[in-house]
Amino acid sequence: MSSDSKTINYSQLFSQLIKPATSGDGGVMDDTMASFLYYLFPRELFIRALSLLESNDMFIYTFQPDSSLPLKESSTTKTFDDKDAVTKTSSDLTSSSKTDPDNERDSNEAEGKKEKEKEIEELVNDVYNEEDQFLHRLIVKPENTHSPPISVDLLNWFCSCSEFNELFHEELKKGEELSNCLIKEIDDMSEFSNDKFSQLDAHSLSRQKYFKFDKCLCHHLLAYSIILRSSPDILRYFTLKNCSVFHLRIDNLDEWLKLHINIVI
């Protein structure tokens, strides 16, 4: 595996991991593509990344202020011990229900599910269409409950896990300049690639930068790359259909800061 060769478009391959809905067996994983991706990465990284995607331990937090709501009217609270996000608004707190017949309960549950799907769908579109306008935090629940959550930064190609840091320190020991040994720059527009995997400074029009992922790659970075550097359909599959990756919108600045203090940092 080498990141120097851009003949392989990893983003495009990731986008084919789930069969399209238009096919007869759409919406399921493509075993052929999964097997192909398995052999592209060392140390069984792909299997570990796929297992992480299905573990219910991955969280995407998006700060997306809602200008239509007064400050503190809406808040979303999520912890690793509570898998179900609880959203409350001021109208929820003041509303009263004198009766609670079964049909009304079913109707409310259906409406709640529909609203949740709509919110996740909006988040999917935001991540892929307007990524630079929203703050995102990519968090993975640690295996050890006494350890802090693992923070993943795709934009700068960094992960706080020990595996990534050990690989990074190995590169530091070589004594080479990091910009030379870990980053590949392309300034010839004829050689530009539309591959988003491990790409840095994606908004530059004059050059492309890629982190040499074959030197520093962990299954956390790979897992998030699969869902955030492929296509909306892949992210939609794991957040909406498979429901194994939690994608939550936070529209209140106070809640976002609490997340920083209590979970991220």
From TrEMBL:
Residues 82-118 are annotated as: Disordered. This is Suppressor of hydroxyurea sensitivity protein 2. GO terms for biological process: DNA recombinase assembly; maintenance of rDNA. One of its GO terms (cellular component) is Shu complex. Residues 87-98 have a biased composition (Low complexity). Residues 99-118 have a biased composition (Basic and acidic residues). The gene is NCAS0B04180. It comes from Naumovozyma castellii.
